[in-house]
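Problem: given the chain below (263 residues), write out its structure.
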Amino acid sequence: MTETMTGTGRRTALVALAAAAFLPCTGARAAPGRSAPRTAAGPRPPASLLGDEIRRLPTSRRVMALTFNAAWDESGIDTVLTELRRRRLPATFFPTGAFADAHPAAVRAFAQAGHGLGNHSYSHPYFADLDTEERAEEVRSADAAIRTAAGAEPLPLFRFPYSATTADSVADVNDLGYAAIEFTADTNGYLGPGGGMSVDKAVRRAVDAFTPGAILQMHVGSTGDGVVLDAQALPRIIDAAQAEGYELVALRDFLTDTAAPGL
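Solution.
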């Protein structure tokens, strides 16, 4: 994800709240040199989703996943949710914890519509600039904010800010009980007209990435101009995918060892 966040200071006050929502990790093996982490609530992702960043789902079937990051305002959210509801299609939303605190009704709307909720950190920092404990604080604080806003259990899926991953940061996230879910392609719709993007260009970037197991990254919200190209492009992306025989599936379908290989 490439959106820019303001106010990247640590939310230490949330750490105590977040820690209360986590049980000691009993199934995860801490990497050498790390103390035993505390893991995400719920089941761990399957082995097929651990050990590296995931940019394509482990399947040969003509299926793809729609995902949306949320870190700014609420622009475009109603449009996206209405289109998904009309088509009866699933998506996965990755809000930041700061977004969840600022816009709890939007996060609750994602959950109430039946879509999965991933974790996109609290304040959207570069994880390479953080140590293990700071990364854990970002993940746990975001989890606390998202579950409070949504009133629902987030998925054990983490998307790195700026898609800036390192082997060490992926290992830290895995140790916390999350799969590192990135994307096959970003539409770049978040850049908006001012960044040289258009609906046509966003659609083309998505279509060019169509492949079995593709994960498409889009964005809801705007940086102030109210223009959300991905919301406008979504119907055309869906039409193109379905015309090419792709089924649009939920990331949660890949959270069991039995589902992922055969899906």
